[in-house]
Amino acid sequence: MKKILLVLAVGIFTFSCKSDKKVEAQVEEKTVEVIETPMLTLGEFDTKAGEFIGEEIEVVGIVDHICKHGGKKVLLVSDEGDAHVVSDERFDEALMGSEIKLVGVVLEERIDEAYLLKMEEDNIKSHSEGASNEEQFNAKKKHLQDYRDKMKKEGIDHISNYSLQYVSHKEVAVISE
């Protein structure tokens, strides 16, 4: 009886060791997929950003402007183009004039007829409540009509404005003034 138990114990031990090796081998065979963040130049941002809505991309540009009304918006520029960046946190004023590599999620603002009707309604309400003068009212009205004219001329039902939701950045160089 002792011999049967000993053989059974050795068999179980051997079987468990072999199955552990299979598990280890399976873990080692799995490949890790590295996803690279696409890089766009600021010159191609407006034309290619639509391909990356809701995804992270990298851009390189010079911090040309940091919004004074909260510091949560930045304008990145290069000789070829620009991009607006928004953040949940304030940007450090020391970034002004710096060239940075920025990672952000592409956002899209769609300007369509429903958007324009809402903006017209807001413009009329604002003017009737005295929050805007006649000149501001007419300028806004003209601006909205320009959007309509552009959509009609280009045969499109909306205009897309792209921006970036800030994720991270690193400084590339400091531009001296």
UniProtKB/TrEMBL annotation:
PROSITE patterns in the record, alphabetically?
A: PROKAR_LIPOPROTEIN
Q: Which protein, by its recorded name, is this? A: DUF4920 domain-containing protein
Taxonomic lineage is: Bacteria, Pseudomonadati, Bacteroidota, Flavobacteriia, Flavobacteriales
